[in-house]
Write a structure and sequence with these properties.
The protein is mainly alpha-helical. It has one domain (2-141): Zn peptidases (Aminopeptidase, 3-Layer(aba) Sandwich), CATH 3.40.630.10. It is built from two helices and two strands. The model is unreliable at 1-6 (pLDDT under 50).
Length: 142
């Protein structure tokens, strides 16, 4: 019984050791990839901040009916940004009229922005969902 247990343990050690080495190499490789990614993000930080600044300049408060044209302007801003970044099949989908109560007759809902990045059917699909409207802010908010 003891010999048999030792034999299994010895086998497990032989099997596990290459996996540990492989995992260490993969972890090191993954770390270097992350270092490269974070380096790229840091290098692009000024461009990201500039783009964000342009986006938040547009007072796209969807809850304020008088600012609905600004929400639509933000949608067009996103279309331009997506196009610049290489996205394809960019679409603005109009959703119809704003349901009551509304103080503006025939007020349209803000459009949905759809796009694709890449077109390789062998790759998995990643869906990213977000909203582009904002909440009202005052100077006291910062």
């Amino acid at each position: 019984m003891y010999t048999r247990a030792l034999g299994i343990s010895s086998c497990l050690r032989r099997i596990a050791t290459p996996n540990i080495i492989k995992r260490t190499v993969m972890t090191t490789d993954l770390q270097s990839r992350f270092d490269k990614l974070f380096g790229s993000i840091d290098a692009l930080k000024p461009a990201f901040i500039e783009r964000l600044g342009k986006a938040v300049e547009i007072p796209a408060v969807s809850g304020d009916e008088s600012l609905r044209p600004q929400v639509v302007k933000k949608a067009h801003f996103l279309v331009d940004q997506l196009s610049t970044l290489g996205f394809t099949d960019i679409q603005l989908k109009h959703l119809g009229k704003q349901p009551p109560p509304t103080s503006i007759p025939d007020l349209q809902l803000p459009p949905v922005v759809l796009s694709r990045f890449g077109n390789d059917p062998s790759k998995k699909t990643v869906l990213v969902y977000g909203h582009y409207d904002v909440q009202p802010a005052s100077l006291e908010d910062g």
